[in-house]
User: Fold Flagellar biosynthesis protein FlhF from Orenia metallireducens.
Amino acid sequence: MKIKKYRAETMQEAILKVKSDLGADAIILHTRKFKQGGFFGLFAKKMVEVIATVDQDNKKRKESKLSESRQANEDNILKSELSQMKHMMNDMMGELKNKNQQSLHLVVNPSLERLIDALWTLGLSRKMARELAEEIADKVDLKDLNSEEIKDVLREKLKKEFIDIKPIELESGKTKIISLVGPTGVGKTTTLAKLAARFSLFENKKVGLITADTYRIAAVEQLKTYSEIINLPLEVVFTPQELLNAIEGYQGYDLVLVDTAGRSQNNQLHISELKGFINNVPIDEIYLVLSATTKVNDLMKIIEVYNEIDLDKLIITKLDETNSWGTILEATAKAKKPLSYITVGQDVPEDIKLPESEQLIEDILKGLEL
Ligand code: GDP
Assistant:
């Protein structure tokens, strides 16, 4: 405990000194008046003396009280901020809930869902079906799901955006070399035979055949049989050099069709082999052959893999086996390549068509049931 002595002419002055030195918590221990200076009691100055101290514990208590009250104050501010935040959160949650309910309302919009399902059964992916359905919903009232109205919107859209059909175009005096690629079993060899017959028998073109599909003996035999029936020359090649020689051997021909070995789209080695095979020879156009019976997801994967080769056009086979002609839309959209021929049966040569776009759209839409 610190004890100090203060002297001043008046009590107020002394107390002021105490306060300014020891603070407001100073405790006065003793005061006295005395006389200072003078001569034998004459002319002496009246003075005041104050002895004071400060209660440190009390000061600390006060300080801690002060900090307690500050803390309490801060706590109160925090509490009120928290409660404000809580309110804000509640409001936000309310809004979110509202929005969710709205989108939930969209998701369970039964008419829209029915339309998506209907488009899906056309052979479209769920994604394309939803996108199309939402576009349709912007244009027509889905309440009564009027098929004709919906088909009209689709017709317009398909005409503008999807259907680009390009046949094999021959130039006189030039040999066009076309190669068919695609997974095994999709109908490449059969399609090649159909095209060969179409151009040689119906269009009087000079057609030569080459098969590099030597992986399966049956494939060579199959094309050999067709070539004999249609009476066309067939070369069987095992290497890119042999393929080059065979192509050179067909000088003066209008059309040379090259069959390639099909393997699973998961066989990456095959794709690079195939690339090596056809990139080293002067092939004019490469057609990817796809089956309409393939599941959309697999079809997407096949296209992704074969797009590594510089594809020109698509041929879609086996449309006679399915009502899901929408796969044509998925395939052309994914590959970003035009469609050329479609095949609709096993018979050579008749089951191949160069579709006419309006008819094709009708064929795609005929499967639409609402
Ligand atoms: P590749 O392995 O791709 O050469 O396929 P293929 O030409 O050997 O054909 C495989 C099977 O599909 C054969 O049984 C063909 O008759 C059949 N096929 C080919 N095109 C069509 C078609 O358009 N419709 C139907 N239903 N079957 C087809």
In short: The radius of gyration is 47 Å.
